[in-house]
Write a structure and sequence with these properties.
The protein is of the alpha/beta class. 37% of the residues lie in helices and 23% in strands. Strands 1-2-4-3-5-6-7-8 form an 8-stranded mixed β-sheet, sandwiched between helices. InterPro entries: AB_hydrolase_fold, KANL3/Tex30_Abhydrolase, NSL3/Tex30.
Length: 220
Amino acid sequence: VKVKIPFGNKYLDAIFSVPKKKSTYGVILTHGAGGDMNFPHLVSLAAYLASHGVLCLRFTCKGLNIAYRTKAFKTVVEYLKLSDDYKLLGVFLAGRSMGSRAAASVIRQLSQDDDDDFIQGLICLSYPLHRPKLQSKLRDEDLLFIRCPVLFVSGSADEMCEKQLLEGVASKMKAPKKIHWVGKANHGMAVKGRTTEDVMEEINAQVFSWLRENIELEHE
């Protein structure tokens, strides 16, 4: 279902992937610095989640300014929260690369604003912990503030997220967290000798099983 979400004086393009059965939880998903919501990995994940009973709303927000991207993400969260069509108990925020930074930033901001538990967790696909070859400057400040469960899915050869550095940040985080390393994958999740479909199957299954664990934990 295509929708346009009001954002300032313009609209954000978004698409709902709706499960057959009514969903009580949803995932909001956005793209990295390049591309849009039709990035193949996002389309694949959204379809997988919907086919497994989880509503997924993915949206496009162009712009390389992280504050702008964060504001857009926040608008989408509010939109879904107030939606009459999909009455959800909670959502998980997910993003690829820069989109996952925006998601983390939203969670930090909203957790300071109020203490409602609409946001259930954070999914970071290829979180860009540092710029290539600039390991001294880590983008970890939002992560250290977050309290809800966090899943990282990163390539073990990601040039923007060195394995030891992410593990170091994770060990300092107060949130319950899990890291799934995709062996030999780079920042774009490409792995020599494996098809994109094959890698996506691994990622989608990991995301869904983590979601299921966290939804069950909350509501046993």
